[in-house]
Each structure stands twice: as C-alpha cells, then as structure tokens.
Amino acid sequence: MAAGRRARPRHGRAARPHDDPAEGASVTAPTVDVHAHVLLPEVDALVAGRPGLAEARALDALRNGPAALAVNGPMVRERVPALTDVAVRLSAMDAQGVDVQLVSPSPSHYHYWADEETAEKLCLLAGEATAAHCARAPGRLHGLGLAPLQHPKLAVRTLEHAMGLGLLGVEISSHAPGRELSDPAYEPFWTRAEDTGAILFLHPFGCTLDERLDRWYLSNTVGQPTENAVALSHLIFSGVLDRHPGLKLIAAHGGGYLPTHLGRSDHAWSARSDAGAGCAHLPSSYLKRLYFDSLVHDPYVLRELIRVAGADRVLLGSDFPFDMGTEDPVGALRAARLSDADFDAVRGGNAALLLRKD
C-alpha cells in the first residue's frame, strides 16, 4: 500500500487487450496485472482492540511521519470502493485494458505483531474473504492469501488453507520482527510452497530505517525498494534459492534496488569468502529464478530489469488502486519500447503461464 500526491488524470484512451505495441504485432495472451490489492474489513474488525495493535500503529506513525499519515487516510478512503467492490474493480480493469488481476490483501493486513491464535485466525479469514471477492468474477480475478511470518510454524498451515480455497498462494512481507527471510525456521514453508507450486508475492510493508525516512514520504519511495533489496539478498546469499530452485516468487516494485545494482553483490561474492559462503552461484544469476513486477515508474529502469532478469521473468504490475501505482500499466509498459515478443510476454504471456493451477 502506498500514499502520495493524487494522480493526475490521464489523457487519451486506455490501452485495450487487442492493442499492439507496434504495427503487425501478434497478441494472444490476456493482459494480466499481478500487483493489485483488496481491502478486507473482516480483518480490521478481527484485530480491533487486540493487544499490540496500538503499539504497531504507533510504530507505523513513527516510520511514516505526520505528513504522510495526513495524506494516507484520505487517499485510502477515496479508494475503498475500488478496493472492496468487484463491480468497481472490473470497470477500472476494463478502462485499463486489463483482463485478469492477481489480487492480494492490502499489506496493512499483515499484522505481524499478532500472537499465534490471532495470527492464524487472521490469515484464515483473509484467505476466505479474498477467495469470496475473487469468486464474484471467476476467470478475471485470482487471489492470494496471507502467511504469518512471525510464526513460521503456522506458515505452512495457512499456505495450505489458502491453496485449498482455490487461491494461488500467499503474500508475504520482506521480514517479520526478529526474523529475516533467510531464517532456517522458514525451510518447511519454502519446501511446501515449492511442492505445491504456490505463488509467493513478496510485498514489503514498512521499513526498519524508521524516523530516518519520516519526511517527504521517503518511508515508501526509499524504504520499499530498500526492503525489497534486503529481503531478496537474504534469499540469495543464504542459499534458499539453491535449496528451493522451483519457488515461484514474485517481487513487487521490480525487486527494488537489487536487480539493477547487483554488480556490487557479484563483486563481493567473488572477492570475499564471507560474502560467497552461503550461495553456490554468482548473485546476479539468481534473478532468472525469480519473478518481478513491472512497477518501476521509469521505462529505462524497466528495460534494464528485463535485460538482467530476462523478459520471461517480468510481469505486468500496477499496485491497483493505490496512488503509488500506475493507472495505465499497459501504457507504462509500452513506454519502454520493447520488442513485440517481450512486450507481449510481460503484458500477460508470462503471467498466463505462471498462474495456471496445473
């Protein structure tokens, strides 16, 4: 979830699924947006008044600062219909030229402060509510549940529950309090996700740099890319991706700073025994084992992401309907001036293959 200056109106017709990036291009796959959110009032009701919620909100206020919070509230309230009403969502998708969305709960629903009992109830409820939302538009909406990273032993159970509901996997943040994604306690979770073919959507919420980023919305503009880079580095350098090469993990926001700045990591891996101790291969090589959404807000950065990760590893993403997303994800992709084949792969071809339940 993100906040910032209100989006300016776009001019001209939204891209449609049959539009070509260039004359004569062939389009067969649907246009698929893998980064879209749903707000779940049921989850908010569940955690209301629970011990730990007030402290978590105070920490969130510290990390974002008063100016950001003053913008966040009205921004989210304005978008509640798009976040909760399927008819509003479908209308917006039609206007954007998006055929299919992969819908994940708003990251504000993570609540990694919650005790085991509350966390399990929360994740089960979030899965059920997301599945019900998506069931109102079968074929157009696919969903993800949540996993309580603060309680690794529950993560497998909630993943299996989500998959049993017909969801395609779960959304996770970049870390939990006191635990990085390299923590050995997550090994059963990675194993089960790999075995089931579950999609894991890595979407940070909050940044541990705290009040250093509490002005000018740095908590999001700098904090989110930083969190992505740290989380992915833990997965790479710890050997998680060596042990679980079949993981289907999508990193939001184009993977943050990491994909386009991995030269320093590659150098460290080659030059230092401590940096190279945990993973078997050059760090940059692992980009081709991950997936990334296209939401980088710069066509040249998107071109570089596609160059280093491969056109088959980048998926269309909008962060619907938050203000730090894009209202025209297909147009943003077109601005990168890719080849017809790469355009179609990112627009929907890659996601159509990844989202298949078989």
TrEMBL record:
It comes from the Bacteria. Keywords: Hydrolase, Lyase. One of its GO terms (biological process) is secondary metabolic process. Residues 1-27 are annotated as: Disordered. Residues 1-15 have a biased composition (Basic residues). Pfam families: Amidohydro_2. Residues 32-356 form the Amidohydrolase-related domain. GO terms for molecular function: carboxy-lyase activity; hydrolase activity. One of its GO terms (cellular component) is cytoplasm. This is Amidohydrolase. It comes from Streptomyces cyaneochromogenes.
